[in-house]
């Protein structure tokens, strides 16, 4: 028995496959950006953290949720050496901060 597959179905499968490839590529690009981003002082700390938070939100919409503890770590790792004392202080605390708490502390 030969089954004819409608042309529309084949086109939708092809488009879906291309879309998934593009999504995978974008996820990889966004993850790379998030994990290697550095604060260089060209904008405010608030803007830097918001940009990192927005990348994490975009990843979440694509099915790749970034745990808040990881995001805090990525933000801390994005800081220049001048923030070394701050980083050490954070690591000595028993409590973990969420992104908003970290942002408040960094902006002070």
UniProtKB/TrEMBL annotation:
It comes from the Eukaryota. This is UBN2 domain-containing protein.
């Amino acid at each position: 028995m030969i089954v004819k597959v409608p042309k529309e179905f084949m086109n939708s499968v092809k488009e879906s496959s291309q879309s998934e490839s593009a999504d995978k590529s974008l996820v990889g690009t966004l993850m790379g950006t998030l994990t290697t981003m550095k604060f260089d002082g060209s904008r405010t700390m608030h803007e830097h953290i918001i940009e990192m938070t927005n990348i994490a939100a975009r990843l979440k919409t694509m099915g790749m949720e970034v745990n808040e503890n990881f995001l805090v770590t990525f933000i801390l790792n994005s800081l220049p050496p001048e923030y070394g004392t701050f980083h050490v202080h954070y690591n000595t605390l028993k409590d973990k901060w969420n992104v908003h708490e970290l942002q408040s502390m960094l902006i002070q």
